[in-house]
What does this fold into?
Amino acid sequence: FHILVMGRANAGKTTILQRVCNTMDRPEIFNGKGGKVCISYICGYHNIEDELVFQSNPQFVFHDSCGFESGSEEEFDRMRKFVMEQAKAIKLEERIHAIWFCVPLNDSHRMVMAAERKIFDNCDTGHVPVILLATKADTLELQALEQRED
It folds into this structure.
């Protein structure tokens, strides 16, 4: 099951993947041909075509979007091309089956950015469902508790 995970930096993408796969480990990274990529999964490194696989749940294959929130046309075009190609792939194991779009709910990230709006306005996902994941909701609970205590 291939999933493209999208969202701005610090949106909680890695945390969601680790929770789904019931691990705190970092994923193994493979290129699209099954060869292991020798770079570790670190913040800021993204190749949308690389496959992120957690040993604890190898039936899920994740792809991480690039830093499109910076407004880079090149990154946006790369992401759009990847989505269109993967959505139309004939072989099931080459297709993306869902797109998880992570939106953090904490105050510092609440505004919808132009780059995020552009994705929904200008990226045809075909029949691939886009699922909005509201992340960092726990920070809202903490803020509410702090306000209540004041």
In short: The chain is about 30% helix and 20% strand. The radius of gyration is 16 Å.
